[in-house]
Amino acid sequence: MPAREQRRRGRPLEVAFAVIPRFNMMALTAALEPLRIANDLDPEALYTWCLVSERGGRIAASNGFDVDTEPLASRRRPLDLVVACGSWGAEHHRSRELSRWLRQQRRSGARIASLDLGAYLLAEAGLLSDHLATTHWSCLAGFTERYPEVDTREQLFTLDDTVMTAAGGTAGIDLMLHLVGEIHGAQFANEVADRILHHPIRDAATPQRRTLGGLMGEVHPHVRAAIRLMETNLAEPLSVPELARAIGTSQRRLERLFRSFMGCSVVRLNLLLRLQHARVLLTSTRLSVREVSAACGFNTLSYFSHVFLRSFGRRPSEYRQAWPAGEPEPKWRGTVFDFLERSRAAPGVEMPASVPVGKERRARPERGGEPRRKARNGLSAV
Fold it and tell me: For the whole model, what pTM was predicted?
């Protein structure tokens, strides 16, 4: 590989992080720190890096801090690794200059990577076709809808000789530790991991989520299997008996497990997953509200609009951008589990009597109150 050959020649590997406005600072720092620690541990500099943007200058991250960048034009010569960094708004970012620069670097032999929603930047440049790719789990459905030619997986990162993607958050640490180990050996990578207190070094296929938004640090296998089935059948929701049969348990036990681990019923969580999927599609695709409603398994547009408004405080048509360009902060407020609290006061929200018999009839209101415990973690984006 080119990186190994360059290291044998004694030249530090050159890395460029290409950032766009509202990039994720945590994801950037997570990817940078292993390189910095690697330099600290070796007598010679192993890596050099720079931050670049389309025009250069100060670029603000989603947390309000900004970084100084060089213009893309100043980095025309081939680099060893280029990392595209994006977050809020990356799904709407269009830049011919950035796409051209990324393609040029790839043709020159650079390995290309992305952090968080930086995968959108690579896909727009045409660099993810015929490659495995991932992005943050909360936006993966919208990404897959827009780029069906990309083989998407909900995992921590993807890694090959040419193109890599990381889900965001701390996933960049693991991606970079794998690259460090690939070039300098596993023992050296483990020592870098020791310095940043990161153990174990996670594999690429590690799941992005553990709690799935539930009450506990671990989720029962039956609950996890049922949620996976829900997520793969959002357009045609499965009934509770169908879910129970598919995973080999009784309906009563499945309901009991959901109340214990998720703090709500099977039906209610299924509705919440569909609403979460809807707002991802609304903010990251050009599907009409009616098409989004159908893609999320709602038989009627009126019912979809009703529960969406009750859950998020605005109509689907008002939710096309999670963070409008002119706003200082995102509007993706609250978690979908907040809907549980509101629906306790008005349980009929889950299945209004006016809804015709159809798919929604499966999701009739539950009898009795919800458990007192509340799921504290939401299913919203980071």
Answer: 0.79
